[in-house]
Amino acid sequence: KSRQLSICRQGRWTQYRPPQLGSKGRKLMKENALCLDATDFFRILIVDDQQAQLKSVQLMLKINGYEDVTLASDGEEAIRKLQSDCYQLLLLDLQMPGTSGLNVLEHLSQADYATQTIVLSGESSFEWVKESMRLGAHDYIRKPYKPTELLNSITKAREKYNEKKQLKKNQKNIHYLAYHDLLTGLPNRAL
Predict the structure, then answer these.
(1) Measuring CA to CA, which residue among 108, 136, 141 is closest to residue 124?
(2) The pTM is what?
(3) Would the CA dihedral through 154, 160, 164, 169 be positive or negative?
(4) Alpha carbon separation from 10 to 3, 41, 83, 88 (Å, rounded)
(5) How far out from the chain centre does Cα 175 lie?
(6) Consecutive sets of 10 residues in the chain, 191 residues long: mean pLDDT of each?
(7) Phi and psi of 37, rounded to 5°?
(8) CA-to-CA dists, residue 161 to 84, 172, 173, angstroms
(9) Do 43 and 86 form a contact (C-beta atoms < 8 A)?
(10) Strand 139-142's sheet: what is its strand order?
(11) What count of other Cβ atoms lies within 10 Å of the Cβ of residue 185?
């Protein structure tokens, strides 16, 4: 019976089921549950209104080692999932009934998520591409695409995500060092 631990990733509490560990590893995991770093996880959310497309991309990702893949069949479901859990990558179709992919991108940019987005769409007009990139998409891949094209883009998005996380961590450290005495750890007087 595995335990679920509450951990904080990107400022939101979520459940994490740790891998099977020995008693020493379980104890360490339990003691440091709040210190787990989100960069150890790479969660992907795929959003498309075509079920066949969802399943085929999910299967391709699982074959290539991406185990934590979640599916959403429309924009509203994607926004609900983004609000309730943390994802490092979003694979997003633009043309969906109801809430479109552009609406999802707009929600992401307003909420300031760290999630990287790759748009997968059959629409190739310059206006769609321009608007997607303006709203923060990492890449725009036109359907149909080669699996290697998508996998290369995912690798680059993962690198960019990790760089942004490291930059944020470095900024926090610099801010701490700027306002705290290294010897005592106490706050410096006002600058």
Answers:
(1) 141
(2) 0.71
(3) positive
(4) 22, 12, 11, 10
(5) 25
(6) 41 43 38 36 91 94 92 94 92 91 91 89 87 93 93 94 91 84 73 50
(7) -95, 135
(8) 20, 17, 19
(9) yes
(10) 69-72, 44-47, 89-92, 116-121, 139-142
(11) 8
